[in-house]
Design goal:
The chain is an alpha/beta fold and 244 residues long. The chain has one domain: Alpha/Beta hydrolase fold, catalytic domain (Rossmann fold, 3-Layer(aba) Sandwich), CATH 3.40.50. The chain contains six helices and ten strands; from the N terminus they run βββαβββαβαβαβαβα. The strands form two sheets. It has an eight-stranded mixed beta sheet, with helices on both faces. Strands 5-6 form a two-stranded antiparallel ribbon. The chain starts with 12 loop residues before the first strand and ends in a 19-residue tail after the last helix. InterPro entries: AB_hydrolase_fold.
């Protein structure tokens, strides 16, 4: 059977989507669902790393999640560009607003998932995307959130305390060699959130480069949002599941 590599794309139903913010910006994105009309077990609403540092909806962990998880775990994966961010899919209207105006982008993404009745909605943030979730993601329609490499630059202790009061589960994956926040400090900062589960990832860095670390992240996400799916996920698949 073919091995799943960095460039593998597995079968899914994919569609280009648009999100509409309360300040009249159109944001571009993609929704990938299990192929053949299979109902998703859960939905990942993703928020990408800092656009001024190269983050966008195709940042590699999210692109691989969209390429694999609909087939391997029956998950829906919603990716989009925050305001002013470009990718091959296109450019979202507006301009980067330092994580302030992006509050409306967060709400637009959650509202899209809710309006389209995407089930069992989880927010997934990476770096800058974790700040957006911690500041603006406490929406009653979600099940919880997963944070990858949280820097805690923009998110304050007050934001953490608001998440604690929100009560929904929070999974925090912290690379051993993160550039901004390493496990010991992260454990202290996130102690304000009793329901947070902090997982140090040995050997990993902020950008999760390397197939080993991508698989660790995807396995952890699946185990949290769809615990009935066996993990670790397969590293080889039947060739009929490979697109093209």
């Amino acid at each position: 059977m073919p091995e799943i590599t960095a460039n593998t794309v597995l079968v899914a139903d994919r569609e280009d989507i648009e999100l509409h913010t309360s300040d009249d910006h159109t944001l571009v994105g993609e929704l990938a669902r299990p192929a053949g009309g299979v109902a998703p077990r859960a939905t990942l609403v993703t928020f990408h790393p800092l656009p001024t540092a190269g983050g966008f909806m195709d940042s590699h962990v999210y692109k691989k999640a969209a390429h694999r998880l609909p087939a391997l775990a029956d998950l829906a994966v919603l990716r989009f560009n925050t305001r002013g961010t470009s990718s091959p899919r296109g450019t979202s209207e507006g301009s980067f607003e330092e994580g302030v105006g992006e509050e409306r982008d967060v709400h637009a993404a959650i509202e899209y998932a809710e309006f389209h009745e995407l089930p069992n909605r989880w927010l997934v943030g990476w770096s800058f995307g974790t700040e957006l979730i911690l500041k603006y993601g406490t929406d009653p329609s979600i099940e919880g959130a997963i944070l990858l490499s949280p820097p805690l630059h923009r998110a304050t202790d007050a934001d953490l305390e608001a998440w604690a009061a929100f009560g929904k589960p929070l999974l925090v994956l912290v690379p051993e060699f993160d550039d901004f926040l390493r496990p010991a400090e992260a454990r202290e900062r996130f102690s304000r959130i009793p329901q947070a589960e902090l997982v140090p990832v040995e050997g990993a860095k902020h950008l999760w480069v390397g197939e080993k670390y991508v698989r660790t992240v995807l396995d952890r996400i699946v185990a949290r949002v769809a615990p009935d799916v066996e993990t670790p996920l397969p590293t080889e698949v039947d060739e009929t599941l490979v697109e093209g």
